[in-house]
Design a protein that fits this description.
By secondary structure, this protein is an alpha/beta fold. The protein contains nine helices and eleven strands. It has two domains: about 35 residues, no CATH class; about 170 residues, Nucleotidyltransferase, domain 5. The strands form three sheets. Strands 4-10-7-6-5-8-9 form a seven-stranded mixed sheet. A hairpin with a 6-residue loop joins β6 and β7.
Length: about 250
């Protein structure tokens, strides 16, 4: 045992030191543990968890774009701010339970009405979940943003903003193939490549708006998601909706 001081010693213990854990149990536990915690939990090795938050190859999580079937439930998440406002849409396959991120909105330094119109253009009927901090946050003019967006016609619910639980939910769904990303979401993929922890294990809060939206969707999106109303298909086509993008 290494000596820390004349009165303190460091002892580590891993799963191999616990006799009641068999090989199958340890393998199952390891598969359900996020990569940045695996050494700490399985070997007792102290770790600050620096590095990529989702160390999963893009080839494993991306799919080619396809039209969203009208009976699939959908929702979007919204992260608001003056420098960057981002929205992300997800649709869930009712047969497999797999969620597909299929559309994104990524713009900055615009008034809420501009953002709201862009969001409604993808389907005004689709409900959204929003960063709960937006209720009391000002953008550039002191308005309460959640109420502002609701007045502009968005159907919004406060999202569950639990950070570590949300990160685990997203990682678990990506790792097990229950969350897929359409390959044309270039802003999402750009953030994904840079999303990481610092040397102290804290999430680096920079260029992470769509990553936050992903957390909101996995924690809260399915609870509010709805399918496209049956009488909207022909009107959407007449309005020039983009069926490849799901709206």
């Amino acid at each position: 045992m290494p000596e820390i001081s004349p009165s303190a010693w460091l002892t580590t213990a891993g799963w191999d030191d616990v006799p009641h854990l068999d090989a199958d149990t340890k393998r199952d536990l390891l598969e359900r543990t996020p990569p940045y915690l695996r050494d700490a939990r399985s070997k007792g090795t102290p770790s600050l968890g620096a590095g990529a938050i989702y160390p999963i190859p893009e080839s494993q999580i991306t799919v080619s774009p396809f039209p969203i079937p009208p009976h699939w439930k959908r929702a979007y998440a919204l992260d608001v701010g003056w420098n960057r406002t981002a929205a992300l849409w997800e649709a869930w396959d009712p047969e497999t339970g797999v969620g597909y991120l299929y559309s994104e909105y990524y713009a900055g330094q615009q008034v809420p009405s501009i953002h709201a119109e862009a969001i409604k253009a993808r389907g005004k009927w689709i409900p959204g979940v929003i960063d709960p901090a937006a209720r009391g946050r000002s953008q550039h003019d002191g308005q309460r943003l959640m109420e502002t967006y609701e007045q502009l016609g968005l159907n919004l619910t406060k999202a569950d903003n639990a950070v570590e639980a949300g990160l685990y939910d997203v990682w678990a769904r990506l790792e097990t193939g229950r969350l897929k990303v359409m390959s044309h979401l270039q802003s999402w993929l750009g953030e994904y490549r840079l999303y990481r922890r610092d040397e102290k294990g804290a999430v680096i809060k920079k260029n992470d708006h769509l990553m936050d939206d992903t957390r909101y969707l996995e924690r809260s999106g399915m609870a509010v998601a709805v399918a496209k109303p049956a009488d909207m298909g022909s009107s959407m086509q007449r309005a020039g909706g983009d069926s490849r993008m799901g709206y």
